[in-house]
Write a sequence for this structure.
């Protein structure tokens, strides 16, 4: 009797064990499967790496609009958009630390990333009042401000912003601003459709410690009309604009207001720190940076040394702001009345883009200043794609906004921008009406764009009347253009006596139309970076290649009368001997062992060149070495590559002869 029962029990246990085991294996395989799908597209599963030093400089890709690829669960539904999954966990993200979303949520995390182009699940785990470090330098921490500062309205406009991100912005403003300086917070909803931004937001802001009002745009208009609406309702002495995904850090407000108190003609920006779109960590950025624009008017950060503005205090004051030719646009403070005196914004600019360009030129040209205060740190979530729609089409809207800014403020340079920005043509001017803005420019008696370039942005890399703009071709002696050029140069009287770039520019200008018409895009070879796919800010070897007709390939150069050879994005031809002191050409590993590079302009001796009209050689001014074209085998790819380096000058050497072929840039 007993035996069968014992046996049965054992079988039972075995059965249970097997069942359990099978279930376990099933779970593992599902997990592996999910992981494998997630890994098929590395960009999707790891939305983006944490910012490295280079990505400190945010870039907006203005041509590529983010179109969701459709994840494995299909498109997001209205339910997905509208749920508010904010579930803060104590100490998550404290002191600006990164958030790690547990593996079981990775799938959802990836799915919800695309809603806002940032990791919503990470943000939803962080309390609204998370702690941040004090990112100020000791000098800034020690600086005392008078009690008597102007107060401010903080204006935040948003379109479909995530709940946790928007409210953390508001909370950080309230918690880290002295109460007597914060008059009010004004929210402007640019026609969002998320349901949690309706009643739920209205009741939430009623109980805040600082008066907070919400206005709504009747229809989707863009950040300019939304900010204008916010400003209209503001009553503070100063308007402080913030994006809807920021976190203000300790002591952020006082330096801004103090600077405006010193001078109401200053538009003052904080240092914009980085909140990772991937894990919401807060990273401090350098204080010593400033901004300007590239040839296509995209905003760029630069870090070369600039003089500080002199304030009331001492000359070598490490808390003094830095003048910046351009502003990023999202975060700044301005005296409220001054904002209107200076023409607020161009209200015809839609959705996103261009308004920071317009404001930068306008403020400087019409007598104001734009500065960055090193003592004010505000974090901003930088993202690499735009999550929202662009009614009217992204390219159309952007080029329209830029054409408005350029045609009102840039004088002759507007044509340059229109000629060399994809999506823009000279015809863009016919589609816009800027009469009111031109009248404003006259009323305010604003200075010309040439003044702005010369005095506010002397480091600029745009063409100018005393500069060369065009292509640098290799004079192989065969193409028609090369022959015409060499002939012209050989016939110039006194050519051997003059080593002045400006003399060369003049002589070339006389023949500009002829040379330009002779250039053969396939046969002529233009000086250009060796690779097209590396970031412009990095060190790039130089080669010659097919000449192209669009600006993106970086085979167009500006040469200053002093001999700096520059191209778009503040990149300059640079003599840079390899560390070992030997030119290895391409024999070993890769091409980076050449001694000629394209890299960030810095006004250093390594970046000044001479031109010999007699021999058509370009030589490095300090070392007297000549630009030479050499062939070499890249041992990695086994390909023969041509690379430009500098070697002993030899006037008979055909690989050292270069011609300057001008391109049109103004009417
Ligand atoms: N924004 C808006 N309407 C728009 C586009 C943007 O209200 O049509 C808001 C957006 O929510 C954000 C601010 O304007 O608070 C700046 O936009 P965004 O952050 O996308 O610009 P970025 O910082 O990427 O330059
Ligand atoms: Mn933003």
């Amino acid at each position: 009797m007993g035996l069968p029962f014992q046996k049965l029990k054992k079988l039972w246990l075995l059965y249970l064990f097997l069942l359990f085991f099978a279930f376990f294996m099933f779970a593992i395989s599902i997990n592996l499967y999910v992981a494998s799908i997630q890994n098929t597209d590395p960009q999707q599963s790891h939305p983006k790496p944490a910012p490295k030093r280079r990505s400190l400089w945010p870039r907006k890709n203005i041509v590529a609009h983010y179109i969701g690829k459709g994840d494995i669960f299909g498109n997001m539904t209205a339910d997905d958009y509208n749920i508010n999954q904010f579930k803060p966990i104590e100490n998550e993200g404290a002191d600006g630390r990164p958030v790690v979303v547990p593996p079981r949520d990775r799938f959802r995390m990836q799915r919800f990333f695309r809603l806002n182009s940032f990791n919503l699940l990470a943000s939803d785990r962080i309390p609204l009042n998370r702690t941040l470090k004090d990112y100020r330098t000791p000098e800034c921490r020690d600086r005392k401000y008078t009690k008597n500062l102007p107060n401010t309205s903080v204006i935040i406009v948003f379109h479909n912003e995530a709940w946790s991100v928007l409210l953390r912005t508001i909370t950080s403003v309230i918690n880290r601003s002295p109460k007597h300086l914060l008059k009010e917070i004004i929210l402007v909803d640019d026609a969002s459709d998320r349901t949690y931004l309706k009643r739920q937001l209205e009741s939430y802001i009623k109980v805040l410690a600082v008066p907070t009002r919400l206005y709504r745009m009747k229809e989707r208009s863009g950040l300019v009309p939304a900010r204008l609406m916010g400003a209209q309702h503001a009553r503070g002495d100063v308007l402080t604009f913030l994006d809807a995904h920021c976190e203000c850090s300790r002591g952020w407000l006082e330096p801004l207001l103090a600077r405006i108190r010193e001078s109401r003609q200053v538009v003052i920006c904080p240092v914009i720190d980085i909140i990772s779109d991937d894990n919401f960590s807060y990273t401090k950025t350098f204080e010593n940076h400033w901004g300007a624009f590239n040839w296509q008017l995209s905003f760029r950060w630069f870090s070369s040394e600039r003089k500080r503005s002199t304030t009331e205090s001492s000359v070598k004051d490490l808390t003094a702001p830095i003048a910046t030719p351009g502003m990023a646009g999202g975060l700044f403070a301005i005296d409220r009345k001054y904002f209107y005196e200076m023409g607020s914004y161009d209200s015809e600019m839609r959705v996103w883009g261009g308004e920071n360009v317009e404001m930068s030129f306008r403020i400087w040209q019409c007598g104001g200043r734009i500065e960055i205060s090193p003592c004010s740190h505000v974090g901003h979530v930088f993202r690499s794609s735009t999550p929202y729609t662009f009614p009217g089409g992204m390219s159309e809207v952007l080029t329209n906004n830029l054409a408005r800014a350029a045609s009102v403020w840039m004088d002759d340079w507007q044509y340059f921008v229109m000629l060399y920005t994809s999506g823009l043509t000279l015809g863009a001017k016919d589609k816009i009406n800027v009469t009111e803005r031109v009248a404003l420019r006259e009323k305010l008696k604003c200075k010309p764009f040439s003044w702005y370039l010369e005095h506010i942005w002397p480091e600029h890399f745009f063409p100018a009347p005393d500069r060369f703009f065009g292509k640098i071709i290799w004079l192989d002696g065969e193409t028609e253009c090369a022959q015409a050029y060499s002939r012209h140069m050989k016939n110039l009287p006194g050519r051997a006596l003059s080593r002045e770039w400006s003399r060369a520019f003049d002589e070339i200008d006389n023949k500009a139309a002829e040379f330009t018409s002779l250039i053969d895009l396939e046969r002529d070879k233009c000086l250009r970076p060796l690779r097209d796919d590396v970031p412009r800010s990095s060190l790039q070897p130089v080669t010659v290649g097919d000449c192209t007709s669009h600006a993106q390939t970086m085979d167009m150069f500006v040469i200053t009368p002093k001999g700096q050879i520059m191209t778009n994005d503040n990149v300059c031809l640079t003599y840079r001997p390899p560390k070992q002191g030997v030119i290895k050409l391409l024999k070993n590993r890769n091409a980076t062992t050449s001694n000629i590079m394209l890299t960030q302009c810095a006004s250093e001796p390594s970046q000044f060149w001479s031109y010999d009209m007699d021999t058509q050689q370009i030589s490095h001014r300090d070392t007297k070495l000549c630009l030479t074209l050499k062939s070499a085998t890249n041992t990695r790819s086994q390909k023969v590559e041509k690379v430009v380096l500098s070697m002993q000058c030899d006037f008979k050497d055909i690989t050292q002869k270069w011609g300057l072929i001008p391109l049109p840039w103004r009417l």
The chain has a mean pLDDT of 87. The first strand starts at residue 152 and ends at 158. Residues 243, 245, 330, 380 surround manganese (II) ion (ligand 2) (CB under 6 Å). The radius of gyration is 29 Å.
